[in-house]
Specification:
There is one protein chain. 38% of the residues lie in helices and 20% in strands. By secondary structure, the chain is an alpha/beta fold. It folds into 3 domains: 205 residues, Methylglyoxal synthase-like domain (Rossmann fold, 3-Layer(aba) Sandwich), CATH 3.40.50.1380; 121 residues, AICAR transformylase, duplication domain (Cytidine Deaminase, domain 2, 3-Layer(aba) Sandwich), CATH 3.40.140.20; 120 residues, AICAR transformylase, duplication domain (Cytidine Deaminase, domain 2), CATH 3.40.140. The strands form 5 sheets. The protein has a 6-stranded mixed sheet, sandwiched between helices. Strands 16-21-20-19-17-18 form a 6-stranded mixed sheet, with helices on both faces. The chain has a 5-stranded parallel sheet with strand order 3-2-1-4-5, sandwiched between helices. Helix 9 packs antiparallel against helix 11. The chain is elongated.
């Protein structure tokens, strides 16, 4: 009974004792506002040497880590927070009486709040390209990562602030007595996310690959979805530090797993169109129509005409602001998602007539991020995004006897941008900046050629003098033999087959011009 009474007494004592906040930051943005609020709520501040000096210069009381630990910072600051008194205060389970007894035995206070950010390793290596390895290694944070991980692990008891952007929300919740478990958990997720990114940048630097993580997404990181690709599969979306775009739903039903896959494919294609009026319609992660227009409404009308049957229930993507006129054309057809950088107020009113249509805004979050990634059963694949660029890397080498007009050059450029978004083996037919036929995802190239022409004929498109674009080389001349009867006079492909000359000879035989670009665009 004495033990039980002692435990109860100590638990009460722990709960009413003064609160402690440990602060160790290299980025001191908005720190004084945060500390001012903490002082109002009777927090005792423990600070590492740099932070301690900063706070005392600004007339805020704090206890230095060396004084708190009764042990000096050593090894030129490499070891300062790596001490059992600090980590025990962060990791103790307040519902475990044995933990509490040990804290009392060693006179260790509970730490309720950790404010910590890391040495900016990425910024250092980007600004010190010629720095020595020893200088760079000194900018790898050890103690900070340990503190953040410990606090995040114990999120049921400890609040962890790992970025200055979180301070405002924290102080509001503190003042409203609203720091609940869900908020603590959200902060812990963001903390682990930060650590993951930090280690990723360091490991890639040491491997000789500098990868810009750019900015961390400190919004809600997990979104539950109704189900996955099929109703029996559960699914959720995680926003990561590597995401290139951010999206925001204006209204409509909850966004689905398959919607996101189509949106992702749409964003991948929109990367290639910035200043024009461009529209594409996606179905099952691939475009079924795409076009340029003099305005957004013409671009949509032409894109929808590419394959109006497949467009039913599709995802429509725009590279420019959608106005009311365009919206009125779109709502004539059942559309699951409309994706654009913005919608006019009038356009939003028009779309409001269609309760099942989701309006999604997008903006580029990581403007300099040049990677894309894909999850597999054996790991996550990263690669540089396949950008289209009119440069010395992409040539337009006419290897046949028949010349190509400047007008066709515009269709060639447009078609090359589209073919990158179609599953290999990819074929696209283009006429007047409009896709008129698509073939892709076939086990051989001739099947894709047949499919593209079949679709173009099915919807009454004028195949005469269309441009045929291929994402990879033609291994045989069978595709050229097939298209000769459809008056297709311009073929574009990367080249590189051992039978290139046979294919060139076949083109010359039928007065077909062939452009070799020197760049393949497979998309698996």
């Amino acid at each position: 009974m004495l033990i039980i009474s002692y435990q109860k007494y100590f638990i009460v004592y722990i709960k009413i004792m003064k609160k402690y906040a440990l602060i160790s930051v290299s980025n001191k943005t908005n720190l004084l506002n945060l500390v001012s609020t903490l002082a109002q709520y009777n927090y005792t501040i423990i600070a590492t040497s740099g932070t301690e000096k900063f706070l005392k210069i600004n007339n805020y009381e704090c206890v230095g880590v060396a004084e708190f630990n009764d042990f000096p910072e050593i090894l030129n600051g490499r070891v300062k927070t790596l001490h059992p008194k600090i980590f025990a205060g962060l990791l103790a389970d307040r519902n475990d009486t044995e933990h509490l007894k040990e804290l009392e035995k060693y006179n260790i206070p509970l730490i309720d709040l950790l404010v910590c950010n890391l040495y900016d390793f990425e910024n250092f290596i980007n600004n010190n390209k010629d720095g020595s390895l020893s200088q760079i290694i000194e900018n790898i944070d050890i103690g900070g990562v340990g503190l953040i991980r410990a606090a995040a692990k114990n999120f049921e008891n400890v609040v962890v602030l790992s970025n200055p952007e979180q301070y405002k929300e924290f102080t509001i919740k503190l003042k409203n007595n609203d720091i609940d478990l869900s908020f603590r958990k959200k902060l812990a997720i963001q903390a682990f996310q930060l650590i993951s990114c930090y280690d990723f940048v360091i490991s890639n630097y040491l491997r000789g690959k500098i990868i810009d993580s750019n900015i961390v997404n400190f919004t809600e990181t997990i979104t539950d979805l109704s189900y996955g690709e099929n109703p029996h599969q559960s699914a959720f979306l995680i926003n990561t530090v590597y995401d290139k775009y951010s999206i925001h739903q204006l209204y409509g039903p909850a966004i689905s797993y398959n919607n996101i896959l189509d949106i992702n494919a749409g964003l991948r294609l929109l990367e290639n169109f910035e200043n024009d009026f461009f529209c594409a319609v996606f179905k099952h992660s691939g475009p079924c129509g795409a076009a340029l227009g003099v305005n957004m409404s013409e671009a949509y009308i032409k894109a929808n005409k590419s394959d109006p049957v497949s467009a039913y229930g599709g995802v429509v993507v725009f590279n420019n602001i959608v106005d009311a006129e365009t919206a009125r054309f779109v709502i004539k057809n059942f559309t699951e998602v409309v994706l654009a950088p913005d919608f006019t107020i009038e356009a939003q009113r028009v779309f409001a007539e269609k309760k099942k249509t989701r309006l999604i805004l997008y903006y580029k979050k990581n403007k300099n991020y040049k990677l894309e990634y894909k999850s597999t059963f054996v790991g996550v694949l990263f690669q540089e995004t396949d950008f289209f660029a009119l440069s010395n890397e992409v040539v337009f080498n006419n290897v046949t006897n028949t010349p190509v007009s400047d007008k066709k050059r515009l269709d060639i450029i447009f078609g090359l941008k589209i073919v990158k978004a179609i599953k290999s083996n990819a074929i696209v037919l283009v006429n007047n900046n409009m896709v008129i036929g698509i073939g892709g995802g076939q086990p051989n190239r001739i099947n894709s050629v047949r499919l593209a022409i079949h679709n173009a004929k099915k919807y009454g498109h004028d195949i005469d003098d269309a441009v045929l674009i291929s994402d990879g080389f033609f291994p045989f001349s069978d595709s050229i033999e097939f298209i000769k009867d459809y008056n297709i006079k311009t073929v574009v492909q990367p080249g590189g087959s051992k039978r290139d000359q046979d294919i060139i000879d076949t083109c010359n035989k039928y007065n077909i011009s062939m452009i070799l670009t020197g760049r393949r665009h497979f998309y698996h």
